[in-house]
Amino acid sequence: MAEVEKEAADPNLWGNPENSQRVMRERKRLEDALATDKDLSRRTDDITAYFDLAKEGEDITADLRREMDQLRDIVEKLETETLLSGDSDRLSAIVTIHPGAGGTESQDWAEMLLRMYLRWAERQGFETTVNDYQPGEEAGLKSVTITVAGQDAYGLLTSEIGVHRLVRISPFDQAKRRHTSFASVFVSPEIDESIEVIVKPDDIRTDTYRSGGKGGQHVNTTDSAVRITHFPTGIVVSCQNERSQHKNRERAMKILRSKIYEYELEKKRAASQKVEDSKLDIDFGSQIRSYVLHPYRMVKDHRTKFEVGDPDRVLDGDLKGFIRAYLLMRRSESKGGDSAQSA
User: Fold this and answer.
1) Can you state the angle between helices 320-342 and 61-82, rounded to 10 degrees?
2) Residues contacting 22, CB < 8 A, separation 6+
3) Could you tell me which of 41, 83, 280, 289 has the fewest CB atoms within 10 Å of its CB?
4) Paired sense of beta strands 178-190 and 162-169, if any
5) Helix or strand run (H / E) with residue 6
6) pLDDT band of 17, cuts 50, 70, 90
């Protein structure tokens, strides 16, 4: 903490915006850790005091149960943080959602997933920015890219990479028939200045166009939106949420560098096939998670077998159980791999 405070006190710190943001993020992380430590100490003292009152005949059942539940939530959150050990887990995340085949049904489902992640980010205290939003023809969206800014955002959201399946009575079907829809979610770490990714000018093509969809009338008056294509990887990124073409290009380049970095990470992980297996066709049999609203109500993760009987709560952003179950599974698989290599 002393080293971070020394950096924060440096008068030259603010001359480098990216470095100053890194220092302030680290300072906040350490301050949060200290506050959590004090909170844990206080809560354990309170629980001890409740047990002393119980010995004297006081009825403290309700208060003790409340304290124990709150303490359990804190411990589970801390345990989840210990599961984030990857090189990029601490970074912010760039999330892209695409609907599968099915037109309006799938596009509406993609919109529901966007809302779920925005609500989840709000619960976590993360900041979100919609970088590119392509609306659907009747409802929903054709594609969206958002940035989720906050400590551990990428590590937590790696659990969401893959195909998500929805089963419901369609609000767009006058016959009220049951429909199955699919949408894919991809997540990349938002790299900072400590990670160098070189993008050669000859390797990209930049196109400008008039912004559309959400964002207000001011973004629709000029060709301010930017689309960048990276030829070696085939990665295409867009940004349209800023007024100026220059700012949109700057933001799009940052997203491109992050996606190229994730692309290279995927190549290194290809031997295990974990990432490739999560990028199957957006169709039947490839989903990582199913959200069933009819004929019964349940959300089930097909990798971890974790399930919840209240899909409304999940769609409102309560992903804690799914994320924790995935990270525990990832750690278990990692240990298994380490043991096999040792053998």
Assistant:
1) 50
2) 192, 193, 194
3) 41
4) antiparallel
5) helix 2-8
6) low
